[in-house]
Description:
Layout: E1 21-24, E2 29-32, E3 35-36, H1 37-43, H2 46-55, H3 61-73, H4 79-87, H5 94-108, H6 117-142, H7 156-165, H8 171-184, H9 191-200, H10 206-217, H11 225-236, H12 242-251, H13 269-285, H14 288-305, H15 314-324, H16 332-352
Antiparallel strand pairs: 1-2, 2-3
Helix pairs in contact: 1-8, 2-16, 3-6, 5-6, 5-10, 6-7, 6-16, 7-8, 8-15, 8-16, 9-10, 9-16, 10-16, 11-15, 13-14, 13-15
Amino acid sequence: MTTTPIARGLEGVVFTESKLTFIDGEKGILTHLGIPIQEWAESSSFEELSYALLHGRLPNAKELDHFDHDLRQHRYVPQELIENIKLYPRRMNPMQALRTAVSHLGMLDPHSEDDTHEGRYRIGVHLIAQFATIIAAIARVKEGKEPVAPRKDLGHAANFLYMLKGHVPTEEEARLFDMALILHADHSMNASTFTAIATISTLSDMYSAITSAVGSLKGPLHGGANEAVMDMLDDIGSLSHVDDYIGGKLERKEKIMGVGHRVYKYFDPRSRVLRDYAALVAEKQGKSNYYQMLERIEGIVLEKLSAKKLYPNVDFYSGVVYSDLGIKKEFFTPIFALARISGWVASVLEYVEHNRLLRPNALYTGPVDQHYVEIEKR
């Protein structure tokens, strides 16, 4: 028997190189192409970050305009897909619906098997555009409403909110949602990105890789944490109950949702950006109850758990931001996918350029020196 150590959850294992995203969890640093996430959120757009991730550099004005035009042109999905979404059960999990729709989209694409860089890039850009249309359609159908067709005269974030709610959002709402998409667009080798890479490493098609990623993101340990934060706030009910509720959690050594991260041992820098925006939205819209509870929970966490390097992560405040934008809890994870599709596509394109089939080993711990026993003798 070998004594090779096991890296549970592949923690600490380096299997490839990437020029896209850098994280220093000890210092709370996150950069894309060397640029801090705070600068992306404050100065950029989801469209620009998507281009930068796919191309490994910032675009000039003409390149960004062309890329934005490409996204707007390919927001539409085949009507056959929309009609099929209407047939999905109303009780459907939205991530199940998204996973099925992406796979269906692949069957409708006559060039889905194009394994050239140009072919994969084309599919990737189309999927970045089409995810918004698909997710909005799923949400509308689940509410018994007719899907709203995309508009070419709106930016990516504004168009999604328009398709979701049936009316054009305010500039402030569109900017807030755009910023939220930027913060979730890529995060190095997370579970869903790794899953997409594992699939493409077999030289499967782009749609299969992204379908795999959606299935991975569906898991509550990955994509559902912000929904769990909102469930926690609903359980607490009011600011006056926070101390007793969180105190009880700490005494029982139970997890506080939205606190702690596998990578970050300091503040998740994305949570700091979202906290400030959540405060502004809460104040302007008079929805301060959730924010006040989160603010108090953060204070307790910093007092009681900072010594253990447990701090609020991006999910701590993202749920209340989505809620204030009128997005239902069950669609928080699909919104995550709406942002992360850019990171998935970029990572797949980067990895497959120097592809090697992923084939890890497992330490065998079963019986040895056994022999087959006829069924009559068992």
